[in-house]
Design a protein that fits this description.
Layout (H helix, E strand, L loop, with lengths): L1 E2 L4 E9 L6 E11 L2 E9 L6 E5 L5 H11 L2 E5 L5 H12 L3 H12 L4 E2 L1 H13 L4 E5 L2
Antiparallel strand pairs: 1-8, 2-3, 3-4, 4-5, 6-7, 6-8
Length: 141
C-alpha cells in the first residue's frame, strides 16, 4: 500500500450553468487547513458570467461521495501497538461521538477498516500522532 499524507482532494467537472444552461466549470475541494477540514464548491460560466461558491459547515454528502469515487478511500492504520483508551479518547473528541459510537469506530480502526476521504483520515491520523499513537492514512491497494 502507498502511504499518503494527502491533505487535499479536488474534483473538476463540466455541468450545465444554472442560469443559461451553457457548459459551466464546477470545482469542488476538501482540504486540511491547520487542524480542521475545509471544503468549497464553485461554479463559473464563461457564457453568461454566472458564478457562485458554497463552503462551510459539513461537507455535502454528494461531494464527499464524488471525492471518494474519484480519489478512493483512505484507510486509517495504526503502525504500532497503542493504548485503546488513548485511541478511544481521540476518536470521541475528533469525531464528536458518544461512547457507544466511538467504541464501534474503535473496532473498525483496530480491524483496519476505518475509511474516509484522504483529508478526513489524514486529520484523524495527525490527531492520533499528537496523542502519541503511530497512525497513518493509507491510500491505494
Amino acid at each position: 500500500m502507498a502511504v499518503s499524507a494527502s491533505a487535499y482532494a479536488s474534483l473538476r467537472r463540466t455541468t450545465p450553468c444554472p442560469e443559461c444552461r451553457s457548459p459551466a466549470d464546477w470545482v469542488g475541494v476538501q482540504a486540511l487547513a491547520g487542524d480542521s477540514l475545509r471544503w468549497a464548491v464553485e461554479v463559473t460560466c464563461r457564457a453568461c458570467r454566472f458564478a457562485v461558491a458554497d463552503c462551510g459547515g459539513e461537507l455535502p454528502e454528494d461531494v464527499r461521495e464524488q471525492l471518494l469515487a474519484e480519489h478512493g478511500a483512505a484507510v486509517l492504520r495504526l503502525r504500532a501497538p497503542a493504548h485503546r483508551v488513548t485511541v478511544l479518547r481521540v476518536l470521541r473528541a475528533s469525531l464528536r461521538l458518544e461512547l457507544g459510537s466511538a467504541k464501534d469506530v474503535l473496532e473498525r480502526v483496530w480491524g483496519g477498516t476505518y475509511t474516509g476521504t484522504p483529508p478526513e483520515v489524514e486529520l484523524l491520523a495527525r490527531r492520533l500522532r499528537e496523542a502519541g499513537v503511530d497512525a497513518v492514512a493509507f491510500v491505494g491497494s
